[in-house]
Amino acid sequence: MAIVTELTRALGIRIPAVQGGMMWVGMPKLAAAVSEAGGLGILTALSQGSPEDLRTAIRKTRTLTSKPFGVNLTFLPTMSPPPYDQYAKVIVDEKVPVCETAGGPAAAPIIQMLRKHGVYVIHKCTSVRHAKTAVRLGANMLSIDGFECAGHPGEDDIGGVVLLARAAQDLKVPFIASGGFANGRGLASALALGAAGVNMGTAFMVVDEAEIHDNVKDTMIRSTERDTIHIFRTLHNTARVYKNKVAEEVVALERRPGGCEFKDIAHIISCSTLPDFCTQTVSCPPRDH
Predict the structure, then answer these.
(1) Rounded CA gap, 285 and 173, in Å?
(2) Orientation angle between helical segments 107-116 and 128-137, nearest 10 degrees
(3) DSSP 3-state assignment of 88?
(4) Maximum separation of any 2 CA atoms in the chain, in Å
(5) What is 6-205's CATH superfamily?
(6) How does residue 281 score in pLDDT terms, banded at 50, 70 and 90?
(7) Is 275 helix (H, G, I), strand (E, B) or coil?
(8) Rounded CA separation 33/230 (Å)
(9) Of the chain's two ends, which shows fewer C-beta atoms within 10 Å, N or C?
(10) CB-based burial, 80-101: b 16+ in 10 Å, e otherwise
(11) What local confidence, expressed as pLDDT, does residue 76 receive?
(12) By the 8 A CB rule, do 266 and 231 touch?
């Protein structure tokens, strides 16, 4: 049974659910499985390693599904920005129909470039004011991300219910709901709040097609609503992550007198310092860190 909304009509999908971009998780197998099931699968561009690796991943995904899928490009503070324009060019060249974008001012020229070439852009925002800016830049749809979300919830600390109510009141383009949605009840609530669907990330991490270690999946399944923590608050790059020893050590350093800079904690959260089969994974920064 199809649920018809502005999201499903625009993208030609059956279920109004988007698999959000997740670093090291948004790979071909998962994206294809979500699309095959009726939603919109998403490849995470920066997880692929390089623009040419993204091209390879797009082509691999097309061998696994004939349904629509998209690519995520997220623009976050980094010591060495990746070549976003080259990733965007691959999206255009490969005729990927949808791009999920997120992040600050660096996203502006990429959104405009993608729209110029007919790519449908869903821009993820943590505030209505940023959503309005994305619309002026040409975004077709917004993904409104409440404070409940994993990853980067922004710096305004506004919960999803309030944020979605403001979106329904102020936005003139369709939007989907992101942050804390994981099942049919969540989808029903999002539709009731005026959204055209939901964006889900964490829920897709525990499916068979997510190519992450079972220890991580098992830990997530056992976890409760109290098992997350915010890091990078003092650096104004807040991230909600799993509450473990690594995350708690980062928070302790941030709270010490005088605070800290990113260089003071980079060695703690570097992927290279974590054991291969651990459940200590936090939202790892780009590998150039």
Answers:
(1) 32
(2) 40
(3) helix
(4) 57
(5) Aldolase class I (3.20.20.70)
(6) very low
(7) coil
(8) 31
(9) N
(10) eebebeebbbbbeeeebbbbbb
(11) 78
(12) no
Which of 45-54, 70-79, 120-129, 164-173 is least confident? 70-79
**Residue 58: what residue type?**
I
Give the residue among 40, 53, 30 at the shortest CA–CA distance from 287: 53
Give the mean model confidence (pLDDT) for residues 78-107: 93
Residue pair 25/47 in contact (Cβ under 8 Å)? The answer is yes
Q: For residue 179, count other CB atoms closer than 10 A to its CB.
A: 28
Give the Cα-Cα-Cα angle 235, 107, 54 (nearest 5 degrees). Answer: 100
Residues of the chain with CATH 3.20.20.70: 6-205
Residue length, the chain?
289
Helix axes 262-269, 245-255, angle to 10 degrees: 170
The alpha-helical segments, DSSP class H, found in the chain are: 6-11, 28-36, 51-64, 84-93, 107-116, 128-137, 160-170, 184-192, 202-205, 214-222, 245-255, 262-269
At residue 81, the pLDDT reads 87
